[in-house]
Design goal:
single chain, mainly alpha, three-stranded antiparallel β-sheet, two-stranded antiparallel ribbon, globular
Length: about 170
């Protein structure tokens, strides 16, 4: 059962711990821990038992997903729009990497009163998989997790719990 999240306090804690947790994540490359992904999976279960995204939705409020063209088409069709109409109204190409992203935050599909997504069943993979903990390339994503510490309470909790688990296993 989740409890209401104090997002501003979590964001402050994340900024305070960012240097330390970033260093911990970087150290995982050197440690070559066997069964790291098994530990990540166990920690992932713990995190989601404690955190409900509907209590926060900070990712939808402060970040933009990357859309695939096929995802844009599905959402546009669902909204009775053409690809071009939807793209022109809501999206742009990120100049840094060429990705299709939202023009603005919060996301156009976020209901700010309920924190619910109006296109939840059609949302981009970038949204449905966020914060992308369970990945074969977990170690390649440590920089992303560091950047998301202050944006996602689940990311902060996951990195903190992962550190505790690894320290316990020593």
């Amino acid at each position: 059962m989740s409890k209401k999240l104090n997002v501003p306090a979590i964001v402050r804690r994340a900024y305070q711990k960012k240097k330390h947790l970033s260093s911990f994540l970087k150290s995982l490359h050197r440690r070559k821990l066997p069964k790291l992904l098994d530990t990540v999976k166990a920690v992932d279960k713990e995190v989601w038992a404690e955190i409900n995204c509907l209590d926060c939705a900070n990712c939808c409020k402060t970040m933009t997903p990357t859309f695939k063209k096929s995802e844009v088409t599905k959402i546009a069709t669902h909204l009775n729009m053409t690809y071009k109409q939807y793209f022109d109204k809501y999206l742009m190409i990120d100049e840094d990497n060429g990705d299709i992203v939202n023009k603005n935050t919060p996301c156009q599909h976020l209901n700010l009163k309920t924190n619910m997504c109006s296109v939840y069943e059609l949302r981009p993979h970038d949204c449905s998989g966020f914060p992308h903990f369970i990945r074969k390339d977990f170690l390649d994503q440590t920089g992303v997790y560091t950047e998301n510490l202050h944006r996602c309470p689940a990311t902060l909790a996951m990195v903190e719990k992962l550190e505790q688990q690894i320290l316990k296993a020593k």
